[in-house]
Amino acid sequence: MGAHAVTIVGAGLAGCECAWQCAQAGLDVRLLEMRPHRRSPAHGGDHLAELVCSNSFRSDNPDNAVGLLHAELRLAGSLVLAVADRTRVPAGDALAVDREAFSEAVESAIVGHPRIRLVREECARVPDDDAVVVATGPLTSDALAQDLVARTGADRLAFFDAIAPIVDADSIDWDAVFLQSRWDKGEGADYVNCPMERDAYDAFVDALNAAEKVPVEEFEKDVHYFSGCQPIEVIAASGHDALRYGPMKPVGLRDPKSGRRPWAVVQLRSENRAKTAYNLVGFQTKLRHGEQRRVLRTIPGLAHAEFLRLGSVHRNTFVDSPCLLDVEMRLRSEPRVRFAGQVTGVEGYVESTASGLWVAMALIDRLVADRAPVPPPPTTALGAMLAHVVNEATPQFQPSNVNFGLFAPIQGVRKHERRLAMVDRARSDLAAWLAARDRVGVDSPTQEA
Predict the structure, then answer these.
(1) Is the CATH number 3.50.50.60 carried by domain 6-161+315-439?
(2) Is the dihedral of CA 254, 305, 62, 401 positive or negative?
(3) What is the pLDDT of residues 367-416, one digit of tens each?
(4) CA 364 to chain centroid
(5) Could you give the residue range(s) of every CATH 2.40.30 domain in the chain?
(6) Contact yes or no for 137/34 (Cβ under 8 A)
């Protein structure tokens, strides 16, 4: 190896978590951070691990997916979760933190670690070191982004998200929908169709036009949407019937209840082979989350929809991970280079932290334990998130928060007991996986954050 066993580019949540875990295992780490010499448009300060949006890590309830991921990260010895717990502020069942105290504490842990050398300079290209982790986040600098394009191909790096909502299959009113593909293509019933008659469509468009949208950030104002990725509210604003000729077109479909083509239709497509989750096809949106729930629940069949992921359209930089990365988050064409955090297609503070943790574990396995890493089980929150990011069968890969729709399905459990059973299974499987790592020589971190 070179002078530094691991070089990490980017000192956000993923980069700091990865650096800390590697250093705790005995690896020398060089951590590159471009601030204060250069800031991204979203950053307001120069501390490491700055929380640029909310100060919340979302729900800390271990019976939901993100709360379960919190619990798993704590069990695995996460620096970020340890600091978040120490700097938390009252927020109901959410894990919210004192923003400044949190960033200062993470930076203090990183700067004070004897095996981490923090270098504050911009990285314009992937370093030539033997082990590199790119953890530059959703606003990767233009220079580094161009270097990534040269290494991966122009069609493998995206610069904004266009994310459609996902609903839990168990929350769909199956009596109000019908199964059919347009013109009966494919297997003939590949889509769930939510039919609308004219009055319902008119009311839906009016509600959409009146709904509150997320304000456009200054650094997003130069984003020009591709025609196939326009937010639904942008399409609706262009003309009352625009959605009927776009993502809600009913052509090639016939409602078996009426025997005729509906006035408009919202189509749902399965997110996984187990058909536990469905996305609303073409329904990327910048509506506020509360408004999304209110408006989308007026769609036939979705009155009681439980949303596993809400829609989003925002500036982002992420690689086409299923095509480019292996399960260790290594670039298949250049295995010395790994990726961590939102640049891999995970969404959110907690998911970014978890990504950095897993990449560190894989590096520790390779460089310290001299063995091939064993990924976390897909029955766990960490494993489900990882499986989504590197699943080569994922159609039209888009970033995602952790949600139960990503987990390996569970059989033989009644509907209302399924979530708790999945949580219990995840806890047991993660504990067994961590214990197996300890038994073969990779101990959990012991130095206090």
Answers:
(1) yes
(2) positive
(3) 999 999 999 999 999 999 999 999 887 767 777 889 998 998 888 888 88
(4) 24
(5) 166-310
(6) no
Residue 82 parent element (H or E): helix 79-86
**Pairing between strand 6-9 and 132-134?**
parallel
Rg (CA), the chain: 23
The reported pLDDT for the residue numbered 446 is: 43
Helix (H) or strand (E) holding 117: strand 116-120
Q: What is the pLDDT of residue 233?
A: 92
Partners of 117 in beta bridges: 30
Q: Structure tokens of 175?
A: 């009596």
Dist. CA 301–CA 313, nearest whole Å: 25
Cis peptide before 127 (omega within 30 of 0): no
Q: Is the model's pTM score more than 0.85?
A: no
Phi-psi region of 390 (alpha: psi -120 to 50; beta: other; left: phi over 0): alpha
Q: Are strands 312-319 and 277-280 parallel, antiparallel or unpaired?
A: unpaired
Q: What is the pLDDT of residues 332-348, one digit of tens each?
A: 999 999 999 989 989 88
> What are the tokens at 92?
């109901």
What CATH number was assigned to the domain covering residues 166-310? Answer: 2.40.30
